[in-house]
Amino acid sequence: MNFLGHARLSLSGSDNYLFGNLIADGVRGSDLSDWPPEVEAGIRFHRRCDAVIDAHPETRWLLTQVPPTSRRVAGIALDMMWDHLLAADMQDDDIERLYRLLAREEVPARLASLIEWIQVRDALRRYRELDFTLATIASIGERMVARRRSRNGGRSSGVEGTHGQRVLDADANPLADMTPWLADNRAMLKDSFARLWPDMLALRQPPAI
Predict the structure, then answer these.
(1) Residue 207 lies in a domain
(2) C-alpha distances out from residue 86 to 145, 160, 195, 197, Å
(3) Chunked mean pLDDT (size 10), the chain, 209 residues
(4) Could you list the residue range(s) of the whole structural domain that residue 13 is in?
(5) How many domains does the chain contain in total?
(6) Is residue 208 part of a domain?
(7) Is residue 74 included in any domain, yes or no?
(8) CA–CA distance from 169 to each of 8, 115, 119 (Å)?
(9) Are 181 and 66 spatial neighbours (Cβ–Cβ below 8 Å)?
(10) CB–CB of 133/80 below 8 Å?
């Protein structure tokens, strides 16, 4: 799940619990003892939610429907589409709470540029716009392309699979390639999410700390 999904599932908790849910992707390892207990609980809840949604039958089914050339990265795009669908019903007061919290607390260094991007572009509101969401998905793909080029010494040669076959050109952007499919199948994705989301809401009682 992405930013708004985790926020929606943790808004009923304290600011520390909510903050832990928001920053969990920037936290590595299982030893979370350096974090305050409520933040630690939020990080663990975030990880639990990710595990549940990744294994959910609806997610697995959707991954069989996406274009084969984008299947390897489709989970990223689906997470972004869930934020798009959730943003439509997100209250402005809740969005402002998220922005205040992110401005007040120190986020992990590996998330700093992402948080700045979200704040500068008011992304938590703009995810309501399908075009903005699709452009964001494509831009994530562009950053992945740039990292591949960097690892490849700037060359555009293909990435080899386990048997030596070329499975991905270093310049390919399967996330951008997937955006027309996402736009064309928004109604199907909305229906699928409506079946998935109640199971996620059932998890949202903050765990005992």
Answers:
(1) no
(2) 28, 37, 14, 10
(3) 94 96 96 96 97 97 96 96 97 97 95 95 97 97 85 56 47 94 98 97 69
(4) 3-201
(5) 1
(6) no
(7) yes
(8) 37, 30, 33
(9) yes
(10) yes
